[in-house]
Amino acid sequence: MKICPVCSTEYPDDVRFCPNDGQTLRACSPAHDLVGQVVADRYHVLHKLGEGGMGQVYLAEHVKMGRKSAIKVMNPAMVHDPDAVARFNREAANASRITHPNVCAIYDFGETPEGLIYLAMEFIEGEPLTDLMEREGALPVHRAVSICVQVADALQAAHDLGIVHRDLKPDNIMLTRGRDGVDLVNVVDFGIGIDPARAYELVDDLFDKFSNKVLAAATIRDSALDIYRAPGVRPKDRAFAAYVASNAYARLDDRGKACQYAQESARLDPDNHPYQVLQNSLCQP
User: Fold this and answer.
1) What is the pTM of this model?
2) Has 167 been annotated as catalytic?
3) Domain 196-282 adopts which CATH fold?
4) Which of the four CATH numbers 3.30.200.20, 1.10.1200.10, 3.65.10.10, 3.10.20.30 does domain 2-122 have?
5) Among 26, 31, 201, 278, which residue carries the largest CB count within 10 Å?
6) What are the E-state strand segments in the chain?
7) Which of 167, 204, 205, 226 is an active site residue?
């Protein structure tokens, strides 16, 4: 059942607006299934597309524009988990910064008065690469190359903004077909992507999960240095690795190395403000 927030009249789930005052109807009580409801006063939920650990994904239609969207709604049981909410919001913030034909577009995100945390994104009428591979097995070389090139283009657009996906897998590569029958790729789910401005916070988060702080810092340092020293790494990516390594060295009380890699990050990417801030804080006499 739904209820009008103004006159408190109750209506069946298939009614969107109150005929008395034109208000968008709300659920009488929080529900796990949002089919038939209007989320955030503008997304009419048509049916459920799927469900994952973070919540449910629905097909919805904008009540005024008529545009279809995929609406991801956080599981109500997780809305009181600060880490889960931060990850959900990070996905929206990261992906909304990327404008590229091979990256799923983010239209909107926020929280409703009823406490639903949602993310409205481009609805892709296709299938994940996982399904294609399970159905057809090994792909012809030319087709596989075409898909990989488009994925690489999407990741390059993210990396140019300092965003690292960190969860790239076939499930997060959506495929549709163009008019000429060629695969069109959309990379989705930047939920655990990170940007350089959060590197220091990321190290703190990882520290909280380890009882042995020295081991945690050494693990983070070694992983970052592997990327920093690898051949063929772009300057921006090398700068990010140096930034993380500098933070780890600082927690190991090695101020000399911390300053060295802070200077490297600032040298490799001089326009990145967090790198300059770290250098100034660690390299003062």
Assistant:
1) 0.60
2) yes
3) 1.25.40
4) 3.30.200.20
5) 278
6) 2-3, 10-11, 26-27, 38-39, 43-51, 55-62, 68-74, 106-111, 117-122, 127-128, 173-177, 183-187
7) 167
